[in-house]
Amino acid sequence: MSMSNKEIAEFLLDAELQRKDVVRITSDKVPNLTVEEAYSIQEELVNLKLEQGHSIVGPKMGLTSRAKMKQMNVEEPIFGYIFDNMVVSEGSQISLADFIHPKVEAEVAFILGKDIEGPGVSGAQVLAATEYVCSALEIIDSRYENFNFTLPDVIADNASSSKVVFGNKVRKPEELELDLVGTVLSINGEIKDLGAGAAVLGHPANSVAMLANMLHRKGEKLKAGQVILTGGITGAVPLSYGDHVTAKIDGLGEVSFSVGE
Ligand code: 0L1
Ligand code: MG
């Protein structure tokens, strides 16, 4: 018997809450899942989280860098949602037991001062509507075995969203050239990956613009006050017990956390 979108969303949410990986849904449950249908499952998942009392911090973009698209063997960016209970404070310790197989990536976050509504939004419009930018470390934790998924699988799974640590320092976007800002991701003092803002669709503001245009297709917009993760500047690096993770983003300072049991 086939499962409804809500039942699939409940299945994925259960995997998240139980910290137990599952076989990707396109291998058995919904082999012909389209991207559009996958976003409908994601919407059910978002509604379940809202019903549980969590609130949306903002949508996020994923798979925005060429490195990431290559790493995951897909050709287009995706979006998901960050919730308030996913935010971890800067410098704190996370517990490995709260995750399935977490990975970390360094990103720039945009804090919106005005709503942004598609279609046809440009990077320049995004910069004009942005109050502040800050550094972020996103922890992704696919609910699928071995991070093994197709594009519709990962869309349904809220783009692997798990936790995020925001840096304390905020800057006005016009104070920086965000395509040029260098980013270094280190674990226990060893550089794991590095890049520049241009790794994100040429400029992180382009990622927010694309997000506004993608949301418009669902009749939605970006809202003032939302905090938007623009996508990894670095690749995603697996986390282990004892890791002290630091990202340095030029002009945006350092953001860090450590990994306990
Ligand atoms: O934030 C991201 O780029 C994650 C997108 C999902 C792909 C993955 O799990 O690596
Ligand atoms: Mg990300």
Please provide a written account of the structure.
By secondary structure, the chain is of the alpha+beta class. The chain has one domain: Fumarylacetoacetate hydrolase, domain 2 (Alpha-Beta Complex), CATH 3.90.850.10. Helix content is 25%, strand content 30%. The chain contains 6 helices and 13 strands. It has helices at residues 5-18, 35-51, 66-72, 123-129, 151-156, 204-216; strands at 56-62, 78-83, 87-88, 93-95, 103-112, 130-140, 161-166, 182-187, 190-196, 227-229, 237-238, 244-249, 253-260. The strands form 3 sheets. Strands 3, 5, 6, 7, 10 and 11 form a 6-stranded mixed beta sheet that branches. It has a 5-stranded mixed beta sheet with strand order 4-13-12-8-9, with no helix packed on it. A hairpin with a 2-residue loop joins strand 8 (182-187) and strand 9. Helix 4 (123-129) packs across helix 6. The longest helix is centred in the N-terminal third of the chain and has 17 residues, at 35-51. The structure holds hexanedioic acid and magnesium ion (MG). Magnesium ion (MG) is lined by residues 62, 105, 107, 138, 140, 229, 231-232.
